[in-house]
Amino acid sequence: MSDPAAPGTLRPGGRTARVREAVLQVAGDTLATDGFDTLDLGEVARRAGVGKTTVYRRWGSPGGLAADLLADMADQSLPRADTGTLEEDLRANARLVVRTLNDPRQGRLFKALIAASLCNEQAAEALHRFYAVRVDEWAGCVRDAVARGEVPAGTDPQGVVAAVSAPLYYALLNTGRSLSEADADRAARAVTTAARAGVWVTDDGGRPARGTGNGEVTG
């Protein structure tokens, strides 16, 4: 007998898809409102109008449910921008992050999922996969910028993209204030300037290369 697929790795259709949609909607609402500690599979099943046995068989645990929710969120995320310049692409990315984190439901949901990742291995692995998918999607903007000569060859695309959202998530988790488009634009501008200067140029082993400060790499 083959091993059962991990939550979030199957994409069912028909009635199974409708069950999944209903369960994930309730799970997301619960996380956004009350946090991961209150995520009870039996209560989720009741509110979703789904058999408890079905929920336990498919998701197994609150961590499995959170993992599938993150997989679904990754599937539904918007594709990357393609404006023709790195700064405008990164600005679009940063503004998308700001809109998401400022959304009353989505902002609380991300806080809950981040908190869950600190105490639940399944949730942590799923969160890592979610961000890997999103960073890889937007990394194409940096590859295009390298091809256009905007940033040095050898620039780490994932490193650049991750640096855009880092200060925005920091503000979300540590200040509690609403983010603004000015925050997004500042993050995009700072990362673009650093990328042009060669900050994310790496050697063949993925280690930061020593730069001259003007984007040239000395080895």
Q: Could you explain the architecture of this structure?
A:
By secondary structure, the protein is mainly alpha-helical. It has 2 domains: 17-73, Homeodomain-like (Arc Repressor Mutant, subunit A); 80-197, Tetracycline Repressor, domain 2 (Orthogonal Bundle), CATH 1.10.357. Helices cover 66% and strands 0% of the residues. It is built from 9 helices and no strands. It has helices spanning 14-34, 41-48, 52-59, 62-76, 86-102, 104-117, 121-148, 157-174, 181-196. The radius of gyration is 20 Å and the shape is elongated. The termini are far apart. Mean pLDDT is 88; it is low at 1-11 and 212-219.
Separate helix tally: 9
Proportion of residues in β-strands:
under 5%
Number of domains: 2
Q: How does the helix and strand content classify structurally?
A: mainly alpha
CATH homologous superfamily grouping of the largest domain: Tetracycline Repressor, domain 2
Secondary-structure element series: HHHHHHHHH
